[in-house]
Specification:
This protein is α/β, with parallel strands linked by helices and 641 residues long. The chain is built from 20 helices and 30 strands. The chain binds 5'-O-[(S)-butoxy(hydroxy)phosphoryl]adenosine.
């Protein structure tokens, strides 16, 4: 192992990276060729406004813009000023006039064995029209907020698109959230309607969503109606006059509905995300710029083609589900798979079974899911052919190189490039990501997407040298960026644009850039330890621990130390078949010593059964830390258990 001048954990790890060059067949087939990609990067650097204007030209508008970007009042940027559009026109209406009319838009897979439905563009279009009319019959108007509290059901997609079609604003609350969390969000958004289901299937159980809504409704003064989808069919009490069955509303509704002509800056949806404080933040996205950003990125990064079956496993309760399960694939005229259930039900090979069942070509999932499935060994994916896969993706957290390589070898069979995509609820679209023709370095999210201006800076906004970690910031606006925090423009401005001088957008992440301009995301800014003056990303410690064959999951936190300032404590979950032992404890410490050097001082290794996670699968280190230090863990609404 070669050591550099300043021996930080980060730099040692760089030297160990393997790289993966694109395969010739990938290069031949890709939507964007290497030379086009290089050209796009140059164009995006020279004039990002023009770059995005070109992308916008590929979509349909009722009226074109007077100006591409209005940056006269930062950070309140407006894109495609003066233009009129509707994302649903691009996602549905325009396809009905082409051969795509009878193409499958959504393959919906229920959790119960053998249950699925396929909906063509024409069928989806008509269902959306009907539900748009149903909403209108309840006097829902442009700008009204509609809460959706359902997982990946067909009706969830229909409801989202119907809201957008008439200019209403959807606000999805993940169906794993509590009544308290639902109520808080519904009241903040002042929603007029909640759409939910009687019961949904999750991990072999039926979850009674309607019951949770009942509890939330005790204090939801703005809600006039609750629309209930019949999914599980178990008996529920519908005697409250505000409750309506989805099917009853749909029955009489016409299947024709005009698509509302909207201003490009008209709100599309609100999606709440948690910040560092207890109060959830309502991230607001709009029609025009958002559709341009997600369209351009899906087409180039996930390389979606007319004949592809594309599956993003995300729940629609997350931004990934909004942008890349529903909107972008439909805008591209693709066939998108929606899965209702749990990846381990009825057996841990569920995902591989679904890939083979429908012949999935593109699979986009998260490191947590991959790590969880890897725990069950390589035997399970080997029982399925997975031969249709040609491209893989991951998002949500840093993926350590061992897991990346496992995914590459066992799922992609060494022929599918992996798109490790960095982005956020706030960014709306992929921001730092490879394209299929990129050279891939496992663990790196590659380079900024063309037109996206990213930097790594210190607290004062000065760029840090190559190889050093710093704050990841975005220096120029981008079309799919959030426009504000719902009802709280002050927080939008202060929390994102005033943290680091220069008016740049602060992502809250730490990153470093290597000699090739590749980015290495090191986790949230508060996930970095300072051990005796050495900066150590907890993610890097975790990556080393995860490379040990016995370890399934790991979380590293900092604990105060009177001499060193901080030391590391590591919580580990073992793979099936391994037991905690002093020997294993010793091995892990030795491994860290070997890989990261003596700067990483380990206070303790604790073997645990589970780690506290958000419902989206992110480890909540804040909770571990609070329990370790005996302090208040703060907002726990996003905790899964
Ligand atoms: C945070 C955003 C965007 C969809 C899901 C998460 C982390 C996201 C990556 C990646 C390393 C990543 C960052 C980011 N993150 N993608 N490819 N590599 N970290 O959305 O809940 O808004 O979370 O997820 O820390 O800030 P989100």
């Amino acid at each position: 192992m070669v050591r550099k001048k300043e021996n930080t954990a980060t730099e040692v790890l760089v030297e160990e990276q393997r790289v993966f060059r694109p395969l010739p067949e990938t290069v031949v087939e890709a939507n964007i060729t290497p030379s086009e990609y290089r050209k796009a990067i140059k164009e995006g650097e020279r004039n990002f406004v023009e770059f995005w204007e070109k992308a916008a030209e590929e979509l349909e508008w009722f009226e074109k813009w007077d100006k591409v970007l209005d940056d006269s009042n930062p950070p309140f940027y407006r894109w495609f000023v003066g233009a009129k559009c509707n994302i649903v026109y691009n996602a549905l209406d325009r396809h009905i006039k082409t051969f795509r009319k009878n193409k499958i838009a959504i393959i919906w897979r229920g959790e119960p064995v053998g249950e699925y439905r396929k909906l063509t563009y024409y069928e989806l279009y008509r269902q959306v029209n009907k539900f748009s009319n149903a909403l209108k019959s309840l006097e829902i108007k442009k700008g009204d907020r509609i809460a959706i509290y359902m997982p990946n059901l067909l009706q969830t997609a229909i409801a989202m698109l119907a809201c957008a079609k008439i200019g209403a604003v959807h606000m999805i609350v993940h169906s794993g959230f509590s009544a308290h969390a639902l109520r808080e969000r519904v009241n903040d958004a002042k929603a007029r309607v909640i759409i939910t289901a009687d019961g949904v299937y999750r991990n072999g159980k039926i979850i009674n969503l309607k019951e949770v809504v009942d509890e939330a409704m005790i204090e939801c003064p703005t809600v006039e109606h609750v629309i209930v989808v019949k999914r599980s069919g178990q008996p529920i009490d519908m005697s409250d006059g505000r409750y309506l069955w989805w099917d009853d509303l749909m029955e009489g509704a016409s299947d024709e509905c005009e698509t509302e002509i909207l201003d490009a800056e008209h709100p599309l949806y609100i999606l709440y995300t948690s910040g560092t404080t207890g109060k959830p933040k309502g991230v607001l996205h709009v029609h025009g710029g958002y559709m341009v950003g997600i369209f351009r990125t899906l087409k180039w990064v996930f390389d979606i083609k007319e004949t592809d079956i594309y599956w993003c496993t995300a729940d629609v309760g997350w931004v990934t589900g909004h942008s890349y399960t529903i909107y972008a694939p439909l805008i591209c005229g693709g066939t998108t798979v929606m899965y209702e259930g749990h990846p381990l039900w009825p057996k841990p090979d569920r995902m591989w079974q679904i890939v083979d069942e429908f012949g999935v070509n593109i699979l986009y999932t998260s490191p947590t899911t991959i790590r969880m499935l890897r725990r069950f060994g390589s035997e399970l994916p080997r029982r399925h052919s997975l031969k249709t896969l040609r491209l893989l993706g991951t998002v949500g957290e840093p993926i350590n190189s061992e897991v990346w390589i496992w995914y590459y070898e066992n799922i992609g069979k060494e022929r599918c490039p992996i798109m490790d995509t960095w982005w956020q609820t706030e960014t709306g679209m992929l921001m730092i990501t490879p394209v299929p023709v990129s050279l891939l370095k496992p663990g790196s999210t590659s380079r900024p997407f063309p037109g996206i201006h990213v930097d790594v800076v210190d607290r004062n906004g000065n760029p840090v040298p190559v190889g050093k970690s710093g704050f990841l910031v975005i220096k120029k606006p981008w079309p799919a960026m959030f426009r504000t925090l719902w009802g709280n423009p002050k927080r939008y401005k202060e929390e994102y644009f005033e943290v680091i001088p220069g008016g740049v957008y602060t992502t809250g992440d730490l990153a470093r850039r290597d000699e090739d301009g590749y980015f290495w995301i090191q986790g949230r800014a508060d996930d970095v330890l300072n051990i005796a003056g050495y900066r150590v990303g907890t993610v890097e410690v975790e990556n080393v621990v995860l490379s040990h064959p016995a370890i399934a999951e790991a979380a590293c936190i900092g604990v105060p130390d009177p001499i060193k300032g901080e030391t590391a404590k590591i919580f580990v979950v073992l793979k099936n078949g391994y037991l905690p032992s002093d020997e294993l404890d010793r091995e892990l410490r030795q491994l860290i010593m070997k890989r990261l050097g003596p700067v990483v001082i380990i206070k303790a290794v604790e073997f645990v059964e589970n780690l506290p996670k958000t419902k989206s699968g992110k480890i909540m280190k804040r909770v571990l830390k609070a329990s370790e230090l005996g302090i208040d863990p703060g907002d726990l609404t996003t905790l899964a258990d």
